[in-house]
């Protein structure tokens, strides 16, 4: 549905003989934003749908189908999280703080399934499977040539307190190590000895964009919030920088991840 919606927008624009720049003029949106919509990579906000219908004289087509496309994009994700995958695709930088679980972009299938099952024990299997598929689909991020620069800080407890059997934990940690080695992402481990630090209260993601102000994302068990108020985003930025300073170096962090992975791998072999 999002791809069809974007292809129709491109078709109507080309039929009208307009460039991306000409269509976006007066809409308060950027050219790259519109291009991502045409490629099916980002959702269409209602204000832009109204603008496109007006300029292209499409009799309300994009307004009428805007919500349907948005629902299709949300498939498998909680409604409060629906905008995050699109923002990850268009971001210039992404910085994660993961105190409780491995960041979604780095999760293996086994890890994603365990999280999905644990978060909604009452959900039927088909809903759990949709959530797993949606989370794994975000991993396409790593194959994009234009992907954001990624920086993650993980609590050491994620390595020391396994939520999966040893074999699966080894796979998860080896996957993180492989991403570090092959994608130039930066991952740091916050040692367990850092018991008092600047982000003790929960999950945080900060994203910057080429043509838009930065945002912060915070999340709880069943809710999340995108924060775009500049002074508050600046405060989160300062807290993240302090956390970064308290974490181990990238090289020491990779060594710790690899050591933990070997430990789980050895444990799995001994138990087989």
Automatic annotation (TrEMBL):
Record GO terms (molecular function): DNA binding
Keyword DNA-binding: yes
Keyword line: DNA-binding
Keyword check for DNA-binding: yes
InterPro entries: Cro/C1-type_HTH, DUF5753, Lambda_DNA-bd_dom_sf
Domain (HTH cro/C1-type): residue spans on this chain: 9-42
Transmembrane segments: none
Pfam family, one: DUF5753
Name of protein: DNA-binding protein
